[in-house]
Amino acid sequence: MVAIQEFIAQCIIVKEGASVKTTDVAAEYVRVHGSTEGKIKLYRALQGIAGVTKTRTTFEGMKIKLYEEPVVKKNTTVDNGMTAYQKAKLELEQQRLERQERIEQQRLDQEKELKKGDQELKKGDQELERQRLEQEKELKQQELESQERMKQLDRDFMREENNKNRKMYVGSRFNKYLDLQVYGSPSQQYILTDSLSNVLEFQAFDITGDIEHAPQIKSDVENVSEQVSIIENGLTKTVSAVPISKTLDLLDTMPCDMPVLTKQVELIPDIAIKDDNRHIQSTYDIQMSMQDTDAYPTMMDKDKYLRVQNKVQSGPDGEIMITCYTCGKLVPMKSSACHRMHVIPKSKGGDCSINNIVLGCATCNQDTGNKYTALEYKVHLYAKLVNASDKTFTAD
Fold it and tell me: How many other β-carbons are positioned within 10 Å of the β-carbon of residue 194?
């Protein structure tokens, strides 16, 4: 109400016979106050002034000071060659412009304050978001460090528990000529001397087809073996074994390259330091894990399955002759006497990839059946050849 009274005192002149439009009063009010808020109260206050009445479109008995022309003669001359009338009119215009400028400046100041407030709010929101992200990062880091500490405690515990050499090989479908008997801890691993001899001797026979290397291999293995303590079934006993490092050196002296076996031995230290599942898979389990019947559902041409063990040669009539993968018999590759044999039988989920098919004679393919894999059947024949026990593996 104070603002309305100030407006009336500054801008309204009560004068008998005068008249002013309500729209002009409203415009002047907006020019002074910057909004129409309080306009109705203004109209009521004006009607309460003695001598002022309101019609639908005008106020009678009053006028706005801006429109009050000075009572001077138009031809009266003042300074700078201007009449008093012109000077008074110029001053009124300057006052109006100054008033508009003040109103505009107030508006700009308000916008500036609002913009500054928005920027401060935005800056505050950004700071809160930064703090939130830092807290999340810190919590995540603490969680990772906690997990790592727990893992380290587990490792320390397991290293203490496994300070003695324990069994690392899987007994399921274990074959003494194909699979190594490994014992060890995270820091050191060993292969039993007899187990290493059996596997190396068969590997040499499998690749070369000869058993004449067996005595030398056996002697070489015994020369690098040592006495170590192992734990089995809760009991400690001393056995003859070869450290992994010496085994790798020994593989370099073999009569033929053994890349698959070398790779298996190289992986043993990595398996030994795992947090869990510190077991070496059997040859059978490894072969089973490689099968993909969707990718290799059908047989390919025989020549796709040739291996070094087949010892390809020319026959009397120029036909291609191969050695049976399992028994060593010479057969024509293009004849029906040469069969494509599954390493993992088809009935057990075997596929038709080059890793799971070997070329052999019809007799071996029939004898293998579903009881053996092709490699196990070759071991079966090898065991007979060296006059060893025929029971060389335990089936599932």
Answer: 17
Q: Which residues contact 318 (CB under 8 A, 6 or more apart)?
A: none
The CA–CA distances, whole Å, from 308 to 218, 224, 324 equal: 24, 30, 11
Tokens representing 380 are 């079966």
Average pLDDT, the chain: 86
| DSSP code string of 108-164 | HHHHHHHHHHHHHHHHHHHHHHHHHHHHHHHHHHHHHHHHHHHHHHHHHHHHHHTSS
3-class SS of residue 332: strand
- Kindly report, residue by residue over 61-108, the tens digit of the pLDDT: 999 985 444 444 444 444 556 777 777 778 888 888 888 888 888 888
- pLDDT tens readout for residues 285-319: 889 999 999 999 999 999 999 999 999 999 888 89
Q: What is the mean pLDDT of residues 371-394?
A: 76
Please state whether the predicted TM-score (pTM) of the whole model is above 0.70.
Answer: no
Domain boundaries, the chain: 2-107, 165-287, 290-385
- At 325 the three-state DSSP class reads coil
Identify which of 43, 40, 51, 48 has the alpha carbon closest to the alpha carbon of residue 18.
Answer: 51
Burial of 247 (0-12, 13-18, 19+ CB in 10 A): buried
pLDDT digits (tens, 9 = 90+) for 209-248: 888 999 999 999 999 999 998 888 778 899 999 999 999 9
CB within 8 A of 238, min separation 6: which ones? 227, 228, 229, 230
Strands (E), 22-109: 53-54, 58-64
pLDDT of residue 364: 94
Q: Are 303 and 322 in contact (CB under 8 A)?
A: no
Contacts of 207 (CB under 8 A, 6+ apart): 256, 257, 258, 308, 309
CATH numeric code, 290-385: 1.10.30
Residue 170 buriedness (CB in 10 A; 0-12 / 13-18 / 19+): middle
Helix (H) or strand (E) holding 44: helix 39-47
